Each structure stands twice: as structure tokens, then as C-alpha cells.
Amino acid sequence: MLVLAFDTATPAVTAALHDGERVLAESTTIDARRHGELLVPTIETVLGEAGASLRDVTAIVAGSGPGPYTGLRVGLMTAQGLATTLGVPAYGICTLDAVAYGSGLAEPFLVATDARRKEVFWGRYSDLRTRLAGPSVDRPADVPVEGLPVVGAGARLYADVLGDGGDAPPYPYAGALAALAAERLAEGTPLDPPRPIYLRRPDAVVPGAPKRVTA
């Protein structure tokens, strides 16, 4: 098994390789505006550090969001393209699940990531592997925290409402995504195809017809 995993649903452009037992290489750049520019070089970096080539990869996993439309599509389209070229399966895992897995928490908690527009994407977990609710999108004050710890960049962004996220990683680093995928594949747990999780309409819309000018 050699899993290539990457995520572009948050400002973290992140990729990793996992051989079924451990993370062989991982690279992350925080840049919310250059997903398309950075992803392929990041993949090349982890392949080089692991001494592997794309032909060695047996499965590709991409974070499926939720996340901003443009960045999210970069990762998912790359996963589909590479899978077709290499003849290997491609899967999608909820980006919030990767944040949860990376937290290492064994007790109930919430994950919150930045959804822009003064909102967060969030999910509720019983432990680092098990999502009970979500993903959903709400204003921070409307997230049902109910006294539970909240991790992720959304918690840090709205610390006055959600808490500061503690020591848990704020982003879905690909090492955690790859490890979670490898674990599920080894267990025979079905994985979803690499399709985007959209919780609202994209920011960009087709312009309407011009208004008629009257004298």
C-alpha cells in the first residue's frame, strides 16, 4: 500500500505519502490563494522525500471539504486526473474528519474550520474517528458547542465564542488524512468517491442580464 493524500479545502495546501504503517513524507504550505500553483510541487516534494514515484502509488485520497469552491476543486480534480492516469482508485474523505483524526482526542469534541462570510464549517465527534453530526455551516454563535472542546482554525478565529482550539492542529494536515485513509482501507471500510461536499452556493455567480436604461 502506498497512499498519496492531499487536501486543498482550507488555506493549508498539504500532501503526504503513507505506506500502510507510517507517514513516509509530508509537506504543507499555508496559502489561501495559490492552491492551483502549489499542489503539484507539493506532491512532487513528498514523492522525492520518500524516494517514490507516482507509479508506486496504489491509492489517491483527497480532502472533499467542505471548503471554499475554488480551492476545494483543485484537490479533487487533481485526484481524479491522477487516478485516471495511473489506473488506481481515488477516494474522498471529509476534511473535518482529517482535522478530527489529527487532534488525537478520545473524548467528544467539535471541529470548526473557516467558512468565510463570518461562518464556520463544523462537525461533532465522539472521538477522533467517529463523526456524529455534520458537516454543517453556521455562524459561530449558532454552533451547538454545549460545553465541548472545539478544535480547528475556526475555533481559533472565533476564540471568544468557540474557544482557542487548544494544542490540536488547526488544519487538515495530509499526514493525518493519509493515516486515516490507510486505516480505513486496511479495515475494509468503504470510502467515498472524490466528490466535493458543498454546503452553500459558490461566491462567484453568472451575471444577470443588464438592466434596461430608460429615459
Main features:
6 helices; alpha/beta; globular; 215 residues; five-stranded mixed sheet
Spatial ordering of strands, largest sheet? 3-2-1-4-5
Strand content: 25-35%
Tell me about the biggest sheet? 5 strands, mixed
Note poorly predicted spans: none
Shape: globular
Based on CA atoms alone, the radius of gyration comes out at: 18 Å
> What is the N-to-C succession of helices and strands?
EEEHEHEHEEEEHHH
Average predicted confidence as pLDDT: 92
Number of DSSP strands? 9
Helix- and strand-based class?
A: alpha/beta
Task: Describe what this molecule looks like in 3D.
The structure is a single chain. The chain has 215 residues and is α/β, with parallel strands linked by helices. The protein is built from 6 helices and 9 strands, in the order E-E-E-H-E-H-E-H-E-E-E-E-H-H-H. The chain has helices spanning 35-50, 69-86, 95-103, 153-157, 159-162, 174-187; strands spanning 3-7, 12-18, 23-30, 59-63, 90-93, 109-116, 119-127, 130-138, 150-151. A 5-stranded mixed β-sheet has the order 3-2-1-4-5, sandwiched between helices. It has a 4-stranded mixed β-sheet with strand order 8-7-6-9. A hairpin with a 4-residue loop joins strand 1 (3-7) and strand 2. Helix 1 (35-50) packs across helix 2 (69-86) and helix 3 packs across helix 6. The longest helix has 18 residues, at 69-86. It is globular and about 45 Å long. The mean pLDDT is 92.
Q: Could you provide a short overview of the structure?
A:
By secondary structure, this protein is an alpha/beta fold.
